[in-house]
Amino acid sequence: xxxxxxxxxxxxxxxxxxxxxxxxxxxxxxxxxxxxxxxxxxxxxxxxxxxxxxxxxxxxxxxxxxxxxxxxxxxxxxxxxxxxxxxxxxxxxxxxxxxxxxxxxxxxxxxxxxxxxxxxxxxxxxxxxxxxxxxxxxxxxxxxxxxxxxxxxxxxxxxxxxxxxxxxxxxxxxxxxxxxxxxxxxxxxxxxxxxxxxxxxxxxxxxxxxxxxxxxxxxxxxxxxxxxxxxxxxxxxxxxxxxxxxxxxxxxxxxxxxxxxxxxxxxxxxxxxxxxxxxxxxxxxxxxxxxxxxxxxxxxxxxxxxxxxxxxxxxxxxxxxxxxxxxxxxxxxxxxxxxxxxxxxxxxxxxxxxxxxxxxxxxxxxxxxxxxxxxxxxxxxxxxxxxxxxxxxxxxxxxxxxxxxxxxxxxxxxxxxxxxxxxxxxxxxxxxxxxxxxxxxxxxxxxxxxxx
Length: 452
Ligand SMILES: Cc1cc2nc3c(=O)[nH]c(=O)nc-3n(C[C@H](O)[C@H](O)[C@H](O)COP(=O)(O)OP(=O)(O)OC[C@H]3O[C@@H](n4cnc5c(N)ncnc54)[C@H](O)[C@@H]3O)c2cc1C
What we know:
alpha/beta; FAD/NAD(P)-binding domain; seven-stranded mixed β-sheet; 19 strands; globular; disordered C terminus; binds flavin-adenine dinucleotide
């Protein structure tokens, strides 16, 4: 039996679901709002420089199924493997290893002492029963101490989140913020940098085409079933119990559309769920490409820029170190990320690019008067903002969407999960495992509508 399935959104999640269901013989149609597929994983070639539009992306996963899938996807042109080498720019020309708390001995002595002493004090307070705070600002001090807060965590996180850290919760921290044991912090303080984040010590990156090569390969078997320039505007129940997407009938709908947009598309949404969805918050990322002379390329994968005097950029990636194909021979490239509140996007015209380049020049990373090429792109929906009531809002929305038979929300913003593309692909495999037997029976509703 073949089912008709509408997929709203042609990013990695939508394309992967399309590929998996089409391979089962179902009639899938992917609606993509933009003129191109790929969502946050798009790349662009500008004068021979390949540029990932939403900042530096790497292929890294702990999921064996996804890792094997990538290997198979690139069987004819294996992705480049790189040893991760990341740094924090503490002061001009002073790079320290990442994570910060595993490298305290690389700091100037007075900063090392401030961080170590405060880290020890916070440890003792926790041991004495100091309860875990519920906001990110206090959590940083509770977990790492005031020294690490002042010298790295506060300035960096203010820069990236564009939000008062007291108004952010902590539910997202596990697995996202390094969690060094005190022993490692003290060892690092004495001068032996300890290992943090070892799980990401190697990563892959497509040899040609930038990160976009992944979703372009995923999409190959379903290219004819993708409709670009079609923002889905209406999703409603069909009289026969199926679904209408912009008036066209389908048996099932897979939505990767950001949850905060759904109330506008689904007028029948429960009022409480719609209010919760509309109150979710997010941040954008502006990606800036700078083609540079090879002499400015440092031997790093990426570098965090926590301080205000380093300009608006929070992180740069040396994209030309990921694959030699990312820049013309003898040249290099820097990709700078500037996060923003969607209400106040930064400039991406020549003046905006130059402002970012000047910040990087001030940080000692390039010469703004000697740029080979520049480009920039705004990605308005890039990071989930974990405000204090995030969990309850998300749970309220998903309780409603997951109860709708034949509607399946998936993806980074489709479920508001802080997921990289590998985790999104892993979720697609899981959803497909659940949907496949149901659709094979003729596309009827799932036995358990809370399919996730
Ligand atoms: C700065 C940054 C760095 C990252 N680094 C990495 C990394 O190193 N490795 C990694 O694997 N991942 C990384 N990610 C995460 C990765 O980008 C996402 O996990 C992935 O893009 C999510 O895929 P998605 O399909 O869920 O969403 P998206 O990529 O956001 O795609 C959603 C698609 O839906 C479309 N759409 C929206 N509304 C509608 C509508 N109404 N109708 C039709 N279409 C619609 C959009 O146009 C878009 O194409 C990073 C993300 C950011 C922001």
